[in-house]
Amino acid sequence: MDFIIFLIACGVAFFTGSIAEKKHYQSIRTREAKIDFIPMITVDESELCDGMQRAEMVVGGVVVSCDFFKTTIAGLVTVFGGNISAIESVIDRARREATLRMQEQAQGADMLANVRLQTSTVGPFQVEAIAYATALYK
Amino acid sequence: MIITSIHHVPGKEIVEHYGVVNGSTVRSKHAGRDMMAGFKNFFGGELKGYTELLNESREQALERMTQQAMQVGANAIVNVRFATSSVAQGAAEIFVYGTAVKVL
Lengths: 138, 104
Prior knowledge:
The complex is a heterodimer of chains A (138) and B (104).
Chain A: H1 2-34, E1 54-65, H2 68-80, H3 85-105, E2 111-123, E3 126-137
Antiparallel strand pairs in A: 1-3, 2-3
Helix pairs in contact in A: 1-2, 1-3
Chain B: E1 2-3, E2 14-28, H1 31-43, E3 45-46, H2 48-72, E4 76-88, E5 91-103
Parallel strand pairs in B: 1-4
Antiparallel strand pairs in B: 2-5, 4-5
């Protein structure tokens, strides 16, 4: 009986989780296509940074969680070893979302220098991604 | 207070260094929001409550670092870096650090 409840829970979580993921990826793709291109570099010594007059630090952050189904899959894979692509997609979404939020804050800038991406956990299977950089204006 | 994550402030010159300043905060959301996050954890997706929590914590940590920099007499902080870690269920520590300088 317990196992049946577990399977139902997995099924519901799989259903809602894939819908949430699809919608999130759609939103990410539309925003990535729409946003104005700003050159991003991970260094600040480059000649590209010469002649800039103003700097402002911009940060984008997001917390995304894995659904119960993904958590179960991850538990299984850790027994046998290998890539957990279910979790990889969650981290990918979190990083792209954080980068997009950072770029949205920096609209109008001529360059984003010293871009740093950081991923960490704020709870079991909850991924926090932050992206921060300095927006440079001529 | 000018804050940048690069090693200089464009358009200005650094004339004095005051050393490393930092700000940190540990925050937790109240139990109601935590329960909602617990539900969302089952279904997957963005945890907006936690995102807000961490954004507020980041603001506060930056504010504390700025206070420290003002105390030593700086007017800018360069090479700022962030570090996040979870310290308990539903609580996260944000640590931000940089070099306090005077620019002209």
